[in-house]
Amino acid sequence: MILHVALFRWQPDVTDEDVERLAVALEAMAAGIPEIRGYRCGANLRLRPSPADFAVVALVDDEAGLSAYLDAPSHAQVYADHLTAMVADRQASQITVPDGITL
Amino acid sequence: MILHVALFRWQPDVTDEDVERLAVALEAMAAGIPEIRGYRCGANLRLRPSPADFAVVALVDDEAGLSAYLDAPSHAQVYADHLTAMVADRQASQITVPDGITL
Q1: ipTM for the complex?
Q2: pTM score, two decimals?
């Protein structure tokens, strides 16, 4: 399986309410994409120093599943409604993980 | 529980062999820290564009578990033996996740 990990840094004017609305929209999006086998997102708890503000971790079966997720119209809609105005920086990786993970 | 997510970008002279040795060292470290409830790491598969080269995802019970992991002598040793010479940039987040996740 493939674990997709993304970290976001926000524009300075992003509020806690913006982040809460984003998280709700992302969870709703993930629930509507069956190829996503597990999905977690949230604001950085800031237990250690780092510029990152928000993280997303998503589990998919394979590259086709990743494309079904990242290219979904509902994903583009979350960008249009929330992320495009919020993001100052984004980095992501996909790593191979064994079966049996539950996110 | 807390999911700790880190993304790394390497110095330009880092080789695939360096990354393989790092992954082996990180997995051995994680296996020796009982507070780590799940641990996955690996090179970015680069299925989508991003500057990130490597990802780590670790599951712990709470902030004490995170400290047991990040402050472990074996973690510092992986930095001394591998990461310090390899890292050009690192970002991380910790997010709250519900019980029941298995990494």
Answers
A1: 0.95
A2: 0.96
